[in-house]
Amino acid sequence: MNKILIIGAGTAGTMMAVHLSRRLNRKEWAITVLDKDENHYYQPGYLFIPFGIYTWRDVVRKGSKYMPEGVDYLLGEAEQIVADRNRVKLKDGREITYDILIIATGTTIHPEETEGMVENGWRENIFDFYTVEGAEALGKKLPDFKGGRVAIHVAEMPIKCPVAPLEIAFMTDWYFAKKGLRKNVEIDFVTPLPGAFSKPATAKVMGHMLGERRINMVADFGTERVEPGKLISYDNRTVEYDLLITTPTNMGDALMARSGLGDDLNFVPTDKHTLQTSAKDNIFALGDATNLPSSKAGSVVHFQSEILAENILSYIKGKELKASFDGHSNCFIESGYGKAFLIDFNYDLDPVEGTYPFPIVGPFSLLKETRLNHLGKLSMKFVYWNILLRGIPVPGITSKMGRLGKIIPADSGTV
Prior knowledge:
Elements: E1 2-7, H1 11-23, E2 29-35, E3 39-41, H2 56-59, E4 60-62, E5 72-75, E6 78-82, E7 87-90, E8 95-97, E9 100-103, E10 107-110, E11 126-127, H3 132-141, E12 148-154, H4 164-178, E13 185-190, H5 200-212, E14 215-218, E15 223-227, E16 230-233, E17 238-240, E18 243-247, E19 249-252, H6 254-259, E20 283-285, H7 298-316, E21 329-336, E22 339-345, E23 354-358, E24 362-366, H8 371-388
Parallel strand pairs: 1-2, 1-9, 2-5, 9-20, 11-18, 12-13, 12-18, 13-14
Antiparallel strand pairs: 3-4, 6-7, 7-8, 10-19, 15-16, 16-17, 21-22, 23-24
């Protein structure tokens, strides 16, 4: 019996298990999914927890519920991938062999990577919202915050869900406005980027929105350290705060460092089109675990999983890997006040205006703030748990980014 091992049972690992369980001959191939956590997390929902819109119950469910029948779901933590022997050593002493390995280990926050962040008020007046625990702790802090300086902060790139810091900034503005306290709160958006976002057209729109909301953008801020009530950059600029909502350094799983498979941030070097790693031809990676220039976002995993399933079938048959991931990503950007933006882009085309997923009829508007986009954002919780994780196709949404309905500049494929 041939064996496929998937390390990681998050969005990427679960979707791969679903696709492969349907397409492989199960008399010839066994599929095992290994994860150290029995829970599965709807991570986009973390944004809504601090503001009382979602709770823990909305974003956490048992991972076994979403595993296809016949897939071996194994709880345990990998100690080392021994690539030249096609085996994985677990921390409890067990070993798992494989013929094909899929790395779907994601990324996690590391506040300890920034000097002083943990020591100077972590979960007291310094909070993340990239974990359930951090989002809940921030949700307990906000009702008691009556005024002062709030810094929305990104330590360094790359990060999971690149639009999330913008969303938390807009939602913070909305939250205090709703409470009648906005005049008492000064908000800074502190980013290492030269603008509000990495894509120019989006950066322009988001920068304008920050200005309209009286959120001060502090760009090109390379954070050296955190002191009590202060962010200090490498060029000695200072941002003072009473409440710091931070996106700490994001890193891949330490398993990659122990196995010699990761870069400096433990992300796995991966071909950006085929999703085959550079380590060995029978090792593939997708999602947040890779070093790809695409966004670390759930939509990317959705599109990558379809491409990777095709390429694994080709690999098994000894054929060339022809299925090509184009970097397709789309993201709703919650802007508060019952509205949101939507962006859709890939490696070659930056976000532009238009309609999505269908030309003319949409129903969603690209790079514009609308009520319908907000409703689309909220609907994603249902879509995630009941459609995407189960591998059910969504009409009009494909792994290859379409250009119909988009207002694309005539001079080039990029903006």
